[in-house]
Design brief:
Aldehyde Dehydrogenase, Chain A, domain 1, about 475 residues, 7-stranded mixed β-sheet, 6-stranded mixed β-sheet, about 40% helix, globular, 23 strands
Length: about 475
């Protein structure tokens, strides 16, 4: 079987490889992907550093053309790349194709942004002096991405980094190297100069740690666990390095008495269980007021009965497998914790057998939960949600905000008053009204508050805040 190698200084390299296993069918090896060493990582950083002077001063048309080519090829291959994504991560094929399309749109957007680079010319308070304010590339950027969005998250970090003239050392999650390799291959063939984009697949303890230890990375943009995010932050202080961290959530979906029940159920089911609940924006706390609580629980239970858990590529599958055995154990451990804490298991919670061996778990709904239970405080990152009964809107808002996280927050209501108040007072970076807490556009800012995020926002024009540094220049006329 072919080994998909790392890309360092424009050359494909690497003999040591690990198997990429399909979570829908653990007998299938998706491919063999290189596992980089500390030396590989240092070489990649050196290559990016050497390539930075020329690329940072490259023409905007060159950047535009390369990003546009990449976006066009991703879109043209959306079915192929979507199938690869579904095979290596377990996301259903329609979801995987949708994510691939989003990656293409991100590259298209930043291809346009490359032509819209601008600054300001302002007068000085002193006579006969002009002031120019411009944005310049930050430098060598370390990119570390998670396994749950294996093509979209790399796209929304790589595209702006290149758009604004930075060079890159990219480490994808070990579980999902396939989509990342494909993106790097596409960009490499689109005409990127050698060393501008370097791919080092491998273990976080080796590749990631070497990146953290390097004084030559001007910035690191990271999406992943809270624990690793804190390590990124601590290590970056020593090197005076700019950081951007997206680390998770325990997102609430509030359902008020006046909500349209069908809208509320659809939004909650999508938020909590689609993509197997493996989204940092997933809503695992369903906060429901007394007047609609029993009807909501009954309707949610009926909805969950209709969701088919099966092979990600199979037609009619609503929920694919959990990504791997370790995550499956985490999910089942939390289900047992919820039972011991006194929550009622209203639906699911059982492992499922299918035609192929995989990590299949029923969507799991707890009721009679409180906001102080571990299943309500800690991010599970699986198809597990808890219903928390509250008296009224005021209590619902208080419970929604009572969390160490603050990524996304949702409300189902027909009240303009409550919707408006919630948008203003929800302590989250993103607020959804009568919509799932997961699902955001590619051209607007993404990010959270409190323990969910640190640093400037991702996506859209706000990406410039991280990937550039501001220069102010004075000229005597």
């Amino acid at each position: 079987m072919t080994i998909y190698q790392n890309l360092i200084a424009g050359e494909w390299t690497g003999a040591d490889a690990v198997e990429n296993i399909n979570p829908s069918d653990t007998k299938e090896v998706v491919g063999l992907y290189a596992s980089g060493s500390a030396a590989d990582t240092r070489n990649a950083i050196a290559a990016a550093k050497a390539a930075f002077p020329a690329w940072s001063r490259s023409g905007i048309w060159e950047r535009h053309v390369i990003l546009k080519k990449a976006g066009d090829e991703i879109m043209a291959r959306k079915d192929e790349l979507g199938a690869l994504l579904a095979r290596e991560e377990g996301k259903t094929l329609p979801e995987a194709i949708g994510e691939t399309i989003r990656a293409s749109q991100i590259f298209e957007f930043f291809a346009g942004e490359a032509l819209r680079l601008a600054g300001e010319v302002v007068p000085s308070v002193r006579p006969n002096i002009g002031v120019e304010i411009t944005r310049e590339p930050l430098g060598v950027i370390g990119i570390i991405t998670p396994w749950n969005f294996p093509i979209a998250i790399p796209a929304w970090k790589i595209a702006p980094a290149l758009c604004y003239g930075n060079t890159i050392v990219f480490k994808p999650a070990e579980l999902v190297p396939g989509c990342s390799w494909a993106i790097v291959d596409i960009l490499n063939r689109a005409g990127l100069p050698k060393g501008v984009l370097n791919l080092v697949m491998g273990k976080g303890s080796i590749v990631g740690q070497t990146m953290l230890d390097s004084p030559d990375l001007a910035g690191i943009t990271f999406t992943g666990s809270v624990g690793t995010g804190k390590r990124v932050a601590v290590s970056s202080i020593e090197h005076n390095r700019k950081i951007q961290l997206e680390m998770g959530g325990k997102n609430p979906m509030v359902v008020l008495d006046d909500a349209d029940l069908s809208v509320a159920v659809e939004a909650a089911a999508n938020s909590a269980f689609f993509s197997t609940g493996q989204r940092c924006t997933a809503s695992s706390r369903l906060i429901v007021t007394e007047g609609i609580h029993d009807r909501f629980v009954a309707a949610m239970t009926e909805k969950l009965k209709t969701l088919n858990v099966d092979h990600a590529l199979k037609t009619g599958t609503h929920i694919g497998p959990v990504v791997d055995e370790r995550q499956l154990k985490t999910d089942t451990d939390y289900i047992e914790i919820g039972k011991k804490e006194g929550a009622k298991l209203a639906f699911g919670g059982e492992l499922i057998s299918r035609d192929t061996p995989g990590f299949y778990l029923q969507p799991t709904l707890f009721t009679e939960a409180t906001n102080q239970m571990r299943i309500s405080r800690e991010e599970i990152f699986g198809p597990v949600a808890s219903v928390i009964r509250v008296k009224d809107y005021d209590e619902a808002l208080a419970v929604a905000n009572d969390t160490p996280f603050g990524l996304s927050s949702g409300i189902a209501t027909t009240s303009l008053k409550h919707a408006t108040h919630f948008k203003r007072n929800a302590e989250a970076g993103m607020v959804m009204v009568n919509l799932p807490t997961a699902g955001v556009d590619f051209h607007v800012p993404f990010g959270g508050r409190k323990g969910s995020s640190y640093g400037s926002r991702e996506q859209g024009k706000y990406a410039a805040e991280f990937f550039t540094t501001v220069k102010t220049a004075y000229t005597l006329a």
